[in-house]
Design goal:
Helices cover about 25% and strands about 25% of the residues. With about 325 residues, the chain is an alpha/beta fold. Strands 13-12-11-14-15-16 form a 6-stranded parallel beta sheet, with helices on both faces. Strands 3, 4, 9, 17 and 18 form a 5-stranded mixed beta sheet that branches. A 3-stranded mixed beta sheet has the order 6-7-8, with no helix packed on it. Helix 4 packs across helix 5 and helix 4 packs across helix 9. The chain binds zinc ion (2 copies).
């Protein structure tokens, strides 16, 4: 099969990769479309020493099982099913887990993947394939209300105007927060203000302002320091950024101000897909480019130089989506 291969010598398109072999309980899924995200950029830069096929945001069609022939999305974490955490329903934190396209499992920048059937959710007919690709990153945004009791009216500062910042802002606003997004790109901020959200350029953020809730979606090593400077005493910082390099900063303010720092990674698929199906999340204008599998290496290269909002990979051909152009 065709696919994209990352190794220590770089990123390349390959024409004759072996199909994954499904373990018991798993099904083969033919990929229709996939999404390229910050994590893929980090993997290409050597994050987690990854070697293999990346890609974890996808829509595909299972060849067998309960959802055979229908479009599905899939939870990317695959637990062992037997350890204490899996038994408690936390496969996302199973110490033996594999993660699609990230850890020990071939990903969706390929024609076919294998996933446990229990990870799959059918995509409602009226949700387009291009929109359904957003389920996984949107689920990551829905992780925040799963972790924190969000009191309506809470003033929330989102750091980062990229696609994760955009999705977190929309999800927190849906939960009644008064959201303000800070970023470096006026074009991306304009997209958010058109959704009725308050925005501000990072360079213009009043350093004296403090917020009870700050969410770091910058994808940058400096995001945590900015977040700690903007959170009020007894406030909460949610960390969405995973950066390959080490952080260096003083944690004294966390102690002095008794700040709660909450790491936040993958989230629940069902509410994310439901929000997409209900048309509650604005995605228009978020896709800048659609590329083929063969074009992924060049797209990753481009995305590492320019701040792109989103690139979709049209794996099966014929994906219908409006793009804003690179
Ligand atoms: Zn992702
Ligand atoms: Zn387990």
């Amino acid at each position: 099969m065709q696919g994209v291969w990352i190794s220590s010598s770089g990123v390349e398109f390959r024409d004759s990769l072996p199909e994954p072999r499904p373990a018991p309980g798993e099904v083969l899924i033919d990929i229709l479309a996939a999404g390229l995200c910050e994590t893929d950029l980090q993997l290409a830069k050597g994050y987690m020493g990854f070697a293999g096929i990346p890609g974890h945001e996808f829509v595909g069609i299972p060849r067998s099982g309960r959802w055979a022939g229908q479009r599905v999305v899939g939870e990317i974490n695959c637990g062992c099913g037997t350890c204490d955490r899996c038994q408690a329903g936390w496969a996302r934190h199973c110490p033996h887990r594999t993660v699609l396209g990230i850890l020990g499992r071939s990903g969706a920048f390929a024609q076919t993947i294998a996933l446990p059937e229990g990870n799959l959710l059918p995509v409602p007919d009226h949700v387009s394939t291009a929109d359904a690709v957003w389920t996984e990153p949107l689920a990551a945004a829905f992780r925040i209300p799963e972790q924190l009791p969000l009191v309506p009216g809470t003033h929330a500062l989102i750091l980062g105007d990229g696609r994760l910042g955009n999705l977190c802002a929309q999800v927190l606003a849906r939960h009644g927060c008064r959201v303000e997004v800070v970023g470096k790109h006026s074009r991306k901020l304009a997209r958010l203000s058109r959704l009725g959200l308050a925005t501000c350029l990072l360079s213009e953020l009043d350093p004296a302002r403090r917020f009870p809730l700050v969410v770091d979606c910058t994808g940058s090593p400096s995001g945590l320091a900015t977040a700690l400077a903007a959170v009020e005493p007894l406030g909460t910082v949610v960390l969405k950024t995973t950066v390959a390099g080490p952080h260096q900063l003083s944690l004294a303010p966390v102690v002095i101000d008794e700040v709660r720092v909450v790491g936040s990674r993958c989230g629940p698929f069902a509410p994310a897909l439901a929000a997409l199906a209900a048309g509650e999340i604005a995605l228009s204008g978020l896709v800048e480019e659609v590329v083929t599998l063969a074009e992924v290496p060049a797209a990753l290269e481009r995305a590492s130089r320019e701040p792109l909002l989103k690139i979709l990979v049209d794996v099966a051909g014929g994906l219908k989506v409006e793009t804003t152009g690179p």
